[in-house]
Structure to design on (114 residues):
């Protein structure tokens, strides 16, 4: 009874070594638990990234193809050109962005794109 009170064990007889299948089963359970823990850690890291940066997928999975990079560079070049045209228009016409200025800029950009 003293053993039960001090250690919480009902049987004080020494336990024998688990069988091969019991050890195999335990190792499989522990491996699956480690895998599940890794998945949870990856998920939590991804969610923390979403909460801090607002990006669902911030880490690129692979390098973009040549054509994707070419298209992106063309889009960025056109955006820079449009930004320069707007800056020039506003600098010449008094740096006021009114409705009329917006219409004129739209016409200017439409003509520049043709």
């Amino acid at each position: 009874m003293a053993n039960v009170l001090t250690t919480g064990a009902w049987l004080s007889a020494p336990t024998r070594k688990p069988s091969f299948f019991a050890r195999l089963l335990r190792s499989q359970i522990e491996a699956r638990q480690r895998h599940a823990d890794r998945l949870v850690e990856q998920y939590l890291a991804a969610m923390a990234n979403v909460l801090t940066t607002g990006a669902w997928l911030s880490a690129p999975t692979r390098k973009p193809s040549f054509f994707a990079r070419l298209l992106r560079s063309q889009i960025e070049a056109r955006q820079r050109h449009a930004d320069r045209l707007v800056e020039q228009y506003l600098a010449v016409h008094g740096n006021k962005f009114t409705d009329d200025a917006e219409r004129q800029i739209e016409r200017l950009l439409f003509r520049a794109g043709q």
In short: The chain has two domains: 14-59, 61-114.
